[in-house]
């Protein structure tokens, strides 16, 4: 018997299996090779933002490519200060465990992006954001997720750095006041490949085996 045709908007079992594998191998990468990333590959992956959903079709994502030595040094120092403060807040064995974690690839990653949400965008005319304005920020996070998968499909890794002072970063990058900082993304070729989260591998936390789903 012939197999069912793959209709527009539907995908084959092989594709679904590949998609599940892609999601398994999407890791938060902190260990990068310093090899450059081809600009054509990066541009191809960035198209994921134009395909991402957004509340009211507002497309509120705003990106700054952090490329200059002064800007990179400022962002890296921001992380180091914030990380030192976070370490000081840990106690006992947790402080020891925290201290050995590598929590940023900012010193090595060849491509670095600061991602923001434009809370003042007129695009979308406020649809869907009047009662829940935070949905604009959620839209940016969703777009980052698609970008992350696109990078992984090319063999690239992404590390999301959140141990930062947002206000300081906004000032250092001269970001408009109506933008909201969402995340700092390090992008490059992974130093090694592993489908287990590094925090799990290092014993910091374990992934929950089951989805917490309730019925009302």
Which labels suit this protein?
single chain; 216 residues; alpha+beta; NADH Oxidase; four-stranded antiparallel β-sheet; 8 helices
Pick out the low-confidence regions. none
Domains counted in the coordinates: how many? 1
Q: Beta-strand percentage?
A: 5-15%
Q: What is the C-level CATH assignment?
A: Alpha Beta
What do the pLDDT scores average to? Answer: 93
Order of H and E elements: HHHEHHEHEHEH
Q: Under CATH, the topology is which? A: NADH Oxidase
Oligomeric description of these chains: single chain
The biggest beta sheet reads: 4 strands, antiparallel
- Cα shape: globular
Estimated structural class:
alpha+beta
Number of distinct helices: 8
Named CATH architecture: 3-Layer(aba) Sandwich
CATH superfamily: NADH Oxidase
Order of strands in the sheet with the most strands?
Answer: 1-2-4-3
Helix content: 25-40%
Determine Rg (CA atoms, Å): 19 Å
Instruction: Report how far apart the termini are.
Output: 43 Å
Let me know the number of strands. 4
Describe this structure in words.
This protein has 216 residues and is an alpha+beta fold. It has one domain: NADH Oxidase. The protein is built from 8 helices and 4 strands. It has helices at 13-25, 39-46, 48-51, 69-88, 92-99, 135-153, 166-172, 198-201; strands spanning 61-65, 111-118, 157-161, 179-188. It is globular and about 55 Å long. It starts with 12 loop residues before the first helix and ends in a 15-residue tail after the last helix.
